Structure formats: C-alpha cells, structure tokens
C-alpha cells in the first residue's frame, strides 16, 4: 500500500507550473532545430555532425532534469506521510483480578496463576520506552507499581499478587485511571495527557464497590480504552469454607465495559488462548499513526535525478569511439 502524502507548505507547489512551460519550450526548440536540419541535402554529412544516438540521450537528459525539478520542488514544499511509530509516552495499566474466584482450577493450574504468567509475557513484549503500571483488584484495589519503564519491577509485582476477598471491578477501573494520571509528563507540554490504555483481566462478577459501568463511563470521558479479558469457563468453581461455589464468567459485563470505552473484549478459557489475547492487545496499543516529514527523502531523489541529468549532458558533449 502506497502511503498518502501531504505537504506542510503546499503553496510552494505552485512552482511546478514552471515545468510544463519548460517542457513546451524544449519541444518548440527541438522542432525548430529539426526544421533547420532539413536544409542539409547531404544526409551522410548530417549523420556525422549529429549522431543518431545523441537524440535519445538529449531527451533523457532533459527528462531527468525535469524530474529533478519536480522532486526538489516537492521537497521544498515539505512533504509528510503517516507512519506507524511507537507511542513513547504510552502507558499501559494492567489490572489483575485477585479475588477468591481466581483460585478456580478450570484454567490450569488455576485462573490467577495462568493470568499472571500471561501478563508477564505481555509485559516482556511491550517496547522498552512504554510505561507500564500494575493494579491488583479484589474487594479493594491498589496500585502495586505506578507507571514505570522498569519492566522487570512490573513483572515482579505481577508475580507477587495474592488472593483476597471480594471483587470490585468498578474500583479497579477507577484505580487504573489514577495510575494513568501518574504517567511521566512531557517537559515541553506539561499539560498534555499521555496516551494510555487499561487491560482488565477478570472473571467478571462484581460483588463490591462502585458500579463497573459508572467507572467505564469515566474512562470513556477520559478517552482511555479498556481491553477486557474474561477468562475461565462456565464450569469453574471454588471451595470456600467447605462449600463448593460455582464461579461462572460474566461475559456480558466485560463486553459492555469494552464497548463503552471503545476497547475490545476477549474471552480466554485456557492459557494458550490468553497468550493470543495479549498478542492482539500488544499490536493495538503499541503503535499509532503519526505524521512524519520526508523532505530529506525527496531531496535525495532530486539530487539523484540531477546527477543523472548531469551525466547525460556530459555524454552529449563527449566524443565516443
């Protein structure tokens, strides 16, 4: 796919109107020269004076000169195009459910262990210049690691998460939004908000705290997408106080949160599926379209055409054996 070009100084492209004028002048001069050449009756003498090979070399030299003018004018207009670049100030907040339901073994060895292992792999795949934060979510939520470039610290924090009572999904989202506010500021634009995304891993049954959809609306207003991952199976259960409690996954809630925030919803029932989910999220939050000026590239093209045109002109004046 050819990238689309735009110009920072498009008014300078008016210079290109000179090109057809030069081309018309060249055609006029060539025809006039041909008419003068018809006065020669001795064609053998004409072939000696003006060798046939000089005709195409002359046209080629002029064509290369015009191409040089076109590309140099384009460079003068400061062309730019959209490219994929890493969002160096991007912050990814990983919210991991540490409620008691996460000890269910329907995902081996259990939901929490599988989620932690996949989360560590995800952090390892994030570019080094990205800030990563970790939030542990249960009945209460806490920022284990504020946004940092020290990804090894993030991985250690993920591995340290322990099971707790309760599941407050709404509070987990609010805590993640607070973590995003702690992202490093741009010294040149201290009031600008760094791009960010929340990755929410939970089996999706809210039991405490503020409503999850209220928190999702807050994230939408802050333009922070939430990528929800509902993991586990419908047959999951835990044994609490000697009583077996079913812990099915609430897929509907996870879908609503993702849709509200312009994020994406994923379902993962096994560790392998969870790994693929993280691969998808990594590509979506990892890069953004950005305008990149490509003036030097066009200037280089113009220089190359100019050199070739000069060689063509030299060949016209050279005497070849």
UniProtKB/TrEMBL annotation:
Origin superkingdom: Bacteria
Entry keyword annotation includes Transmembrane: yes
SUPFAM superfamilies linked to this entry: vWA-like
Transmembrane domains' residue ranges: 12-29, 298-318
A Pfam family recorded for this sequence: VWA_2
Matching InterPro entries: Aerotolerance_reg_N (IPR024163), UPF0353/GerABKA_families (IPR050768), VWF_A (IPR002035), vWFA_dom_sf (IPR036465)
Domain called VWFA: residue spans: 91-281
Keywords: Cell membrane, Membrane, Transmembrane, Transmembrane helix
Keyword Transmembrane: yes
PANTHER family on file: LEUCINE ZIPPER PROTEIN 4, SPORE GERMINATION PROTEIN
Designated name of the protein: VWA domain-containing protein
């Amino acid at each position: 796919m050819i990238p689309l070009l735009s110009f920072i100084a498009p008014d300078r492209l008016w210079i290109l109107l000179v090109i057809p004028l030069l081309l018309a002048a060249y055609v006029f001069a060539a025809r006039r020269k041909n008419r003068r050449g018809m006065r020669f009756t001795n064609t053998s003498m004409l072939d000696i004076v003006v060798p046939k090979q000089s005709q195409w070399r002359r046209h080629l030299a002029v064509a290369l000169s015009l191409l040089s003018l076109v590309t140099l004018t384009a460079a003068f207009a400061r062309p730019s195009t959209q490219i994929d670049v890493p969002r160096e100030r991007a912050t990814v907040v990983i919210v991991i459910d540490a409620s008691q339901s996460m000890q269910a073994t329907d995902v081996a060895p259990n939901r929490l262990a599988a989620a932690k292992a996949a989360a560590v792999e995800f952090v390892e795949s994030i570019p080094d210049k990205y800030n990563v934060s970790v939030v542990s979510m249960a009945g209460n939520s806490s920022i284990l690691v504020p946004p940092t470039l020290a990804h090894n610290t993030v991985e250690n924090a993920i591995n340290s998460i322990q099971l707790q009572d309760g599941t407050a999904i709404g509070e987990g989202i609010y805590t993640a939004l607070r973590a995003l506010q702690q992202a490093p500021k741009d010294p040149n634009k201290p009031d600008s908000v760094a791009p960010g995304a929340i990755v929410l891993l939970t089996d999706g049954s809210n039991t405490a705290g503020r409503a999850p959809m209220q928190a999702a609306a807050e994230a939408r207003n802050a333009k922070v997408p939430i990528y929800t991952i509902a993991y586990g199976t419908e047959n999951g259960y835990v044994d609490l106080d000697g009583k077996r409690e079913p812990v099915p996954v609430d897929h509907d809630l996870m879908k609503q949160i993702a849709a509200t925030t312009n994020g994406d919803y994923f379902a993962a029932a096994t560790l392998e599926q969870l790994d693929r989910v993280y691969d998808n999220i990594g590509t979506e939050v990892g890069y953004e379209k950005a305008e990149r000026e490509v003036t030097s590239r066009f200037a280089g093209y113009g220089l190359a055409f100019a050199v070739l045109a000069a060689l063509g002109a030299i060949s016209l004046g050279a005497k070849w054996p």
